[in-house]
Write a structure and sequence with these properties.
Length: 158
Amino acid sequence: MLSRKAEDYLEAILRIAKMKGYARIKDIALALGVTPSSVVEMVKRLNDGGFVEYRKYDGVTLTPKGEEIGKAVWGRHTTIRSFLEIIKVPEDIANKDACIIEHELHAKTIEQVKNLVNFVKSAPDYPQWLEHFEIFCRTGVHPCEEEKRKERVHRLSS
Ligand code: MN
């Protein structure tokens, strides 16, 4: 089992390498908000474990084993981020928290979160329950409840 931190590195290297073909130490440091020297230290460890290949002047690339883990972590990240965005967590917070949650959840939980995300996204129209949820977040009242309450008041007064 890799540490959370190691998983974060593989995920970051995957994302950077996707854009640039390789990842430099300073790219990784920037992406993870850590110092270049701590990147070098971790990259050496990942290199020894067979997860990345590190050549001083060519930067860091993932081995197939490292890529598999990087992709899995990134997949969990996008699933959780989408879920948090559906429940109206602001984008930057959703992105940060996805990076925390992604390491801990059971595969079954991730699968169900992903099912929910895909379910919401594949709805032909914007889901009404989600519209109601937005109103609920603002007012603390479920619009259907409010509707019923108005009907009751109306019945009593007529
Ligand atoms: Mn992440």
